[in-house]
Write a structure and sequence with these properties.
alpha/beta; 22% strand; globular
Length: 418
C-alpha cells in the first residue's frame, strides 16, 4: 500500500542585502556581492544532497527521481536578506536545482521576498515567473520617505509604486506588501497614510507588523540610550484601526499581523503557525522535519565549506517531545483566527483541555476571545495582549501535565469532528 502524500514547505535563505536596516536581526550580509556566485553553487549542491540523503534513509520524505514521495513540496519561500538583490539569474538557477531535486506539487506557492529598489525590472520578474515564482512579497514598510531614510531602507515609496507596476506587467497575480507601525518618529496620521497608500496599490495580501526592537541592533542601541518609540497605547490604537480599515477594504484577518483577499493567505507562513513540516536550505536556515528542529550555521563561509564537506554545517538540532508540541499548538494556533479546538488538542497531544477552556471563558468575558462551537480564537483586542494570555494558558497546561494523567478520548469523538 502506498503511503499518503503529505505537503512539505521549503525555505531558501538568501542572506545578501544592499544595506542593513537599523531594526534587522536576521542573518544578512550587506556589500557581499563577490560571494553571491559561490553561494548559489552551494545552495544547488545542498538541495541535491538533502534530497538524496532523505531517500537514502527510510524517511521517505523528499524524493529524487522515480517512485511516489510521501512528502510533496507545496510551498517554497525565498527569504532573507533581500532575495531580489541576489539577481534573477541566480534565483532562476536555484529554482531549477529545486525542481531537479524535489517533487513539487502542481500549483505550488513559490514566494520571493523583495525590496522595491531591486524589484523594478518587469523583465527580471517575468523571467522569475516563468521559472515558477508566483507570489511576490515587497518590503514597503512605510509610504513616508523620511521614515524610510530613518530606518536605513534603500528605497523610496515611488520605487514601491514602480515595483508594483513591474510585478503586474510581469503578470504576477499574488502580491503582498509589508508595513510596520510603531516606527521612531511615526505619527498616527503617517501610519494611516501608509495604509491608504498601500491599499491604493490593490495588493492581494497585506502584512502589518508592530515594530520589534531587537537587542544588539542599531535601533536597539538607540532605544537603550533613551530614544522614544510610540508606546503601547499608541500601538493599540493603530492596530485596532488597521484591523477595522482592512476589513472595510475587503481584507480578511487570518493571523495577528496578516490580512488577505479571499483565498490569498500565505500558504507557506501558515505552515509555521499550524505546526506543519518544513525544510530550510542555506546559511542560518531553520527546519522542523521528522520530529526534529534544526538549523544551519549563521556564517556564509562556514556554510559553503560545510556543503563542500570541509566543515560542520549543522548549528543546532533537537527532538521535540509531545508536551512541547502541545505548547507550540497553543502558542502558534492562537496567533491565527482559526485558533484552537478541544478535540484537536485532546486527540493530538493527549492533554486535558478543561482548565484551558475555563481560562478561555474568562477571556471571552473580557472580550479577548470568542468561541465557535468547540473552536476558540482570540479577538483583535485579545491579539493586542496575546503574549500574556498565551503565557497564562501555558502555565495551566504545565500544571495539568504535572498533576493529572492524560485524558481518555470519548467514544465517537476520535475523528475530532466539530
Amino acid at each position: 500500500m502506498k503511503k499518503p502524500v503529505k505537503p512539505l514547505g521549503l525555505y531558501i535563505h538568501i542572506p545578501f542585502c544592499k544595506s542593513k536596516c537599523i531594526y534587522c536581526d536576521f542573518y544578512s550580509l550587506p556589500r557581499a556581492e563577490d560571494r553571491m556566485d559561490r553561494y548559489v553553487s552551494a545552495l544547488c549542491r545542498q538541495l541535491a544532497e538533502i534530497a538524496q540523503r532523505t531517500t537514502a534513509h527510510t524517511v521517505d520524505s523528499v524524493y529524487l527521481g522515480g517512485g511516489t514521495p510521501s512528502y510533496l513540496g507545496d510551498t517554497v519561500y525565498f527569504g532573507g536578506g533581500t532575495p531580489s538583490w541576489y539577481g534573477a539569474e541566480r534565483l532562476c538557477a536555484a529554482l531549477q536545482a529545486l525542481r531537479e531535486s524535489f517533487a513539487l506539487q502542481p500549483g505550488a506557492e513559490i514566494t520571493l521576498e523583495a525590496n522595491p529598489d531591486s524589484a523594478g525590472d518587469w523583465r527580471a520578474l517575468r523571467s522569475l515567473r516563468r521559472a515558477g515564482m508566483n507570489r511576490l512579497s515587497l518590503g514597503v514598510q512605510s509610504a513616508d520617505d523620511g521614515l524610510l531614510r530613518t530606518l536605513g531602507r534603500p528605497h523610496t515609496f515611488a520605487q514601491t509604486e514602480k515595483a508594483v507596476q513591474a510585478a503586474r506587467s510581469a503578470r504576477i497575480k499574488n502580491l503582498n506588501l509589508d508595513l510596520i507601525y510603531g516606527l521612531p518618529g511615526q505619527t498616527e496620521e503617517s501610519w494611516k497614510k501608509s495604509v491608504e497608500a498601500a491599499l491604493a496599490l490593490s495588493p492581494e495580501h497585506l502584512s502589518c507588523y508592530g515594530l520589534t526592537v531587537e537587542e544588539g541592533t542599531p535601533l536597539g542601541q538607540r532605544v537603550a540610550r533613551g530614544e522614544r518609540l510610540p508606546d503601547d497605547d499608541e500601538q493599540a490604537v493603530r492596530y485596532l484601526w488597521t484591523v477595522a480599515r482592512l476589513a472595510e477594504a475587503g481584507y480578511e484577518q487570518y493571523e495577528v499581523s496578516n490580512f488577505s483577499k479571499t483565498g490569498r493567505q500565505s500558504r507557506h507562513n501558515l505552515k509555521y503557525w499550524m505546526g506543519r513540516p518544513y525544510i530550510g536550505i542555506g546559511a542560518a536556515a531553520h527546519s522542523d522535519f521528522g520530529g526534529c528542529r534544526y538549523s544551519f550555521v549563521r556564517d556564509l563561509e562556514q556554510y559553503i565549506r560545510g556543503v563542500q564537506g570541509e566543515e560542520q554545517i549543522l548549528d543546532e538540532m533537537s527532538e521535540i517531545p509531545q508536551r512541547e508540541r502541545g505548547s507550540e499548538y497553543l502558542m502558534l494556533r492562537l496567533r491565527t483566527t482559526r485558533g484552537v479546538e478541544e478535540w484537536e488538542y485532546r486527540r493530538e497531544y493527549f492533554m486535558n483541555f478543561d482548565s484551558i477552556e475555563q481560562k478561555l471563558e474568562e477571556y471571552e468575558r473580557q472580550g479577548w476571545a470568542e468561541r465557535h462551537d468547540r473552536r476558540w480564537n482570540l479577538t483583535p483586542k485579545g491579539f493586542l495582549v496575546s503574549n500574556q494570555l498565551i503565557c497564562d494558558l501555558l502555565g495551566l497546561q504545565e500544571e495539568d501535565c504535572l498533576q493529572k494523567p492524560p485524558p481518555r478520548l470519548k467514544q465517537g469523538r476520535e475523528d475530532g469532528a466539530e
